[in-house]
Structure formats: C-alpha cells, structure tokens
Amino acid sequence: MTDAEWYSLLQTSPREARRVLIEQYANLVYAIVRNKLGGVASREDIEDCVSDVFVALFEQTQSYRPENGSLKGYLSTIAKRTAIDAWRRLTYRQNITSSMDEDETLVLPAAQDDTEQEVMEKFRNKRLWEIIKGLGEPDTAIIIRQYFYEQTAKEIGNALSMTAAAVQKRSIRARARIKELLQAEQEGELL
Question: 126 CB contacts (<8 Å, ≥6 apart)?
C-alpha cells in the first residue's frame, strides 16, 4: 500500500488504517527500537516502546501529509526519538538503582572530555545544518528529503518537478559542496 493510499484509508477508516500500518511497519519499528535499547532494556521494555511509537504516531496522524515525505521515514523518526527517550528513562533508572544498591552517596559527573566532545558534536551538527540551509533551492530540499525523510530520487523528483537523474546529479554536487566547505573550515581551524 502506498503512502497516499494509506492516507486516504486513514480519512475513511482510521481503525483499518492503524491495523494496516502496524501490520506493514511493526518489524521496522521493532528493529529500530531494539537497536537503540538493546543493551539496557528487557524484551518487555522494547515491546512497550514499540507500542509507544505507534501510539505517538496515531496521536500525530493529522500532522502527516504524504507530499511532505514518506510514511516510513516519518515513522522511523518517531521510533528513533521514542527509543532515545526510553533509553534515557531506563539508564536514569538503572543509575539510581545501581547507586542505591552500592550504597554510594557520590555520583561523579561525566569526564570533561565527554562533555567537550558532546559540545563539539553539537557545534558540528549545527554548522552542518547551516551549510545545508545555505546551499539554496532546490539543493537544500533535495538533501533534506534524501537524508531526513529518506525519500528516493524518484520521490524527490516528483515532489520538486524534476527528473530522478537531475535529483541525483544535484545531490552529488551538493554533497561535494558540503564536504568542501566542511574541509575548508577544518583546515582553517588547524592554522
């Protein structure tokens, strides 16, 4: 079933649309959640998180539009975010439990290197986003649709009134430009 067909079904029969969605994407969502929670969660925690993903999607179905991106990409994003939130809850709970079990009263903060690394990663991500936005249209739209919404060249071409080959060429050039700008900045920092 295509995204447009599913969206149409959602308008006429929400219950059936939800059943189809779960049937079609349950394994994908489970794989994403298990990948994020594998080391810290029990099977029940993973299954609860999968359920939370579908509940979150069903609560947000009015904000989904097929023309804005694939349902698979939209659902994958919700799954990743929900799993990350669950991971934070579980690790926080495990840290409290382990410290109570060990009768420790002092919990040391993360090492300075870790904090510095996180800050640098956030800075790089922000800078990458600025570069992507600065590419200009349609390159910005192509990169966002390709990497954030996981759309194919054909889907992007249909949405932007371009051929799939043109989308691929612009994507290659845009990625080369991004790489060039990032390398130039990095070389500038080293001087």
Answer: none
